[in-house]
Write a structure and sequence with these properties.
globular; two-stranded antiparallel ribbon; 213 residues; 11 strands; Glutaredoxin; alpha+beta; five-stranded mixed beta sheet
Length: 213
Amino acid sequence: MIVPDAHSPVRAGDSAPEFELPAVDRDGNVALRDYLDRSPVLLGLFRGLYCAFCRRAIAGLGRHSANLAPLGIQTLGVVATPTDHARLYFKYHPVPISLGADPVMTTHAAYGLPKVLKESWDLATRINPTGELSEPLPIWEANKALGQLDRFKPTQTDRDDMQRTWNQLTGLFLIDRNGIVRWVFVEAADGPSGMGTYPPEADLVTAAQIILR
């Protein structure tokens, strides 16, 4: 079962909820209003850095931003970990997009991203979302195996983040310059087999081109 955190995810046509968060990639804060009236925004909301799926998705947004920027689309990510922890990680794993830190996931709740119930979601579902594993593994074994490929060594902060955010689903929102959501993707919306799977760049570019018409 998937349980909405506060309400159903925002839909195309809804006003994008405003937010302001500590910036990860620079001093100060980052806010949605910084972009409105200036450019459309692709917003990604993620779990903590312990999540190998999220680390890959954020890196992917960094790569995709190179093809979205010529279309006038700015890319912004939010990661559910304390600011200092995020800054340390991205100091050594930089991405060319703006990032905000939201350890208590107020932004995720504002955008209505759901959480899952452990007792009613089959965490034994086998996945291989990036194709890097030799075979599909149960969800959190797959996360651990990808972390081993990365030589990722979790800290106590990462372990705390996992306890707090493991059941938070992630999402992508394409927001036009008037602050209207035009396209939405919610991770695993059809069930646990979709964990860690995100749209290919071609889908993002197509969605971006549609809102620019």
